Amino acid sequence: MNTRHRISRTIGLAIGGLTLAACAGAAPQVSNLIVLDWAGYELPEFWAPFAEAYPDISVDYSFFAEDAEAFAKLQSGFEADVLHPCSSWWGLYVENGLVQPIDTSRLTNWASVQPDLAAQGQFDGEQYFIPWEWGYESILVRTDLVEQVPDSWTDLWDPQYAGHVALWDAGEANFVMTAVALGFDPYNTTPEQRQQIRQRLVEIKPNLLTYWVDYSEMAQMIAAGDLWMASNAWPDAYGYLLDDGYEVDYIEPAEGRLGWVCGYGISSTARDLDLAHAFLDALLAPESMAYLIDTYYYGAANAAALEIADPDIVALLDLSDPGVLTRRTIFYQTLTEEQRDFMTSIWDEVKAAP
Amino acid sequence: MEQRQRVALLLGPPGLWLTVFFLVPLGIMAVFSFRAGSFGAERELFTLDNYRQFLQDSAAQHLLWRSTGMAFLTAAFCILLAYPLAYFLSFQAGTNRLTLLTVLIIPAWTSFLLRILAWKVILGSTGALNSLLLWTGLIEETAPILLFSREAVIVALVYVWLPFVALPIFAGLERIDRRLLEAAEDLGCRPWQSFLRITLPLSIPGVLAGFLSVFIPTLGEYVTPLLVGGVNGIMYGNLIQDQFTRALNWPLGSVLSLVMLFLVVLFTLGFGRRVRLSDLAGV
Fold it and tell me: How many interchain CB pairs under 8 A, A with B?
């Protein structure tokens, strides 16, 4: 008698508890948020509003060094809540069902996100990725060591720089760069054009000192003077070398600088959508993004950040001119599997060529 | 029965280790080499295309031969440098041999990566070699000579592998019965004659063991070429690494790896007649 009574009371309490939990809704069911990210992006300054709103949720990072690595990791069953690939891979994530649409109405900072960048994260009318940081890729040059400062991507082939040029060891980047130098549309090439691109990349070898893999090592070689020019360098290397007093220029080639965007998506296996959206919103906050500009010399997806970021950096990199996003920069586009395949295999053939 | 149990106890753990971390992954790789893709539905499709692709890919084959040549040169230089060293240790060093042997091995205690990076510092334009050449007046301005070339890869690898070649040669020389040399001397042999007709032939198994223990790992090397190889120093291992980490073409990467494995097995079988396994262990 007594026992039965106790049991029914326990059940009653349990049901009551469940109802309460269901009503609260916002109370997170998990204790952490798993973020698959590039090393260097784990700074708490990037998501301070999230830490304020959810002090009990720990943000746990899993790092990757290459986009391909992150993609392989998710494809092999790694369960992340939020991930941070770059735009040329976004399509593949959507195609393979690895991400889910983002409800932008839940992002308070969405209104000031630059529409040209936001458009890159849209697939089939849904926003699958929010753009976060963007940056240029251009030629970084030691102006005190060269006789003539280059003004075109084709200058990388100029024999006057022989032995002092480095290309980035990345198939897609070199394919796109060479296509632009040859005046082709990198995303709409004929087989003959691809053959020409391959040929040009083989022909540049005598001009090269090495391929750069690690970007800080590349900056060191420029500082040491072994390298006069590095192709597809990022703005942060430029910024750091300037800060250290080196005479460097980050040219705007006649064909335009290349540009890349990376951003965050919500994994299709995300455990708590409220948390994931809140994290994305915190990343987009103007203060978070201004910190990004000031620390890494990258552009920010949120236009509101430009007003509070270091004005010198904004001016140095032309970040506030809307034209850099629309006209002056050739942005990497999302690749199909076929495009990715031939870009990487062309680069492999180039590297293996005698 | 008891003997058999003891053998099982001794061979069990390493056997299990080899099975789980070597044979099974090798099997997975062999299966992958017949698949159409790395993920999803394509992974379930059987195909021979990856092998066909390798057979048509002259660049990959060229790189394989070049890497074979580089591995051969590395092993050969190692032996040329290690033989006199081992000979001195075995015949001349006397009671100091243990100390000297330790000195020889000490560099191998530092991280492999650190030693390769040290070569970068030595060969770089502001490095030791440049400063020396500048000081002697042989060059007038610094340049990253040697660095970022095939030669730089070979120099760095020879340095890394030298102790591993010296040890089996040393072990081989130690095994030579000294009475044979005394007899030769008694019978009027000059020192160089007894070296050529007794010491050298008897030490050949140790030399071959040393050769293989450098040649095999060097053939698949990818870290050293990445760090000091530059444009012309890249090796077959870099191609394999690219397939797995960047191109995400695991099937082609598997084919490339298996082809290399096949080549290594062929070499080992060829040498196997002349080498005893115990020489590889340096005992």
Answer: 71
